[in-house]
Amino acid sequence: MDSEHRGVTGARLPDPAVALTSLLRGWWEAYPGTRPTQKALARRAGVDQATMSRYLNPGRPMAAPPRVVRVLHAELRADPDRLEEALALAEAVHAARRVPRARGAVGEAGDGGEAGAGGTTVPVRRRVRVPAALRLLGHLVLLVAAVGVGAWLRPLPSGPSPISSALPSPASALAPRPSPGPSWPVVRLGDVLWEARTVQHLLNAHGHRVEVTGTVDAATVTAVQGFQSERGLDADGRVGPRTWPRLVVTVRAGDRGDAVTALQALLTNAGHPTAVTGSFTTDTEDVLRAFQSAHGMAATGIAEPPVWLAIMASQQPRLHG
User: Fold this and answer.
1) pLDDT tens for residues 141-164?
2) In this structure, are residues 239 and 224 in contact, taking their beta carbons and an 8 Å threshold?
3) How many CB atoms neighbour CB 298 within 10 A?
4) I need a labelling partner for 295 at 20 to 30 A (CA). Which of 49, 118, 289, 307 fits?
């Protein structure tokens, strides 16, 4: 990433992402006493260690979001006067990422562009000239296609034949088919990572105590069978479409426990990091609302079974576990 960019006057200005990572790195290196490890900071901020390393590495800058900036400011006991500066840099980086890209091809000064004040370049659209012969050929192709479609859609002069009645109508053939929604995963003996951890956390939330190992072992299968038997399900030890809706727990702001821990871990792995504490804080509620909005759901901030299903369908394989 280029660490500088030019302003309107042509002067080189520091890249806000580099400035932010340099500021955060300074906080970390100036920590009084024994510095916390990046792994510990990542856990407190609810992100993975690789991401935290990028937040603190000006050589490979990755701008931390405002929420993580606040966590680092508190954990690293930084100068209170520097918080607003860091938040302004974070907002500048993330606001720049939300600027939509211009549509259409543009040129540069000296190549279809125009030079503006201060040596800046004002992009202009480049007009592509199409030969007249090609334009005429295109009109002919469109005309023939329109005539063909009109003849195909014209009703037959007589009643429908048995063959034509058996064929689908053009309207039904062209109608878009609804895409299938997400489905619950099937978790069984030997499965690992987030699927196993989620099952184990939720079993603990229902009083079927198991150790959260990240692997579906024999003890986990036995606990699943006990849970299924209590609810009149087929006690096969597998967690699938019939067991998941009973196993997930509806949680909301103020709740605490293993189900909240499972939800926070799933949100973080789905790209919406929140601290995995087992306490449903206002920060977790805000992150959940952001996930719901991003997936076309009502932003209620409440994790009900359809929300659990959507979050599980959004897990990133490389972040499992």
Assistant:
1) 676 665 565 555 555 555 555 545
2) yes
3) 11
4) 49
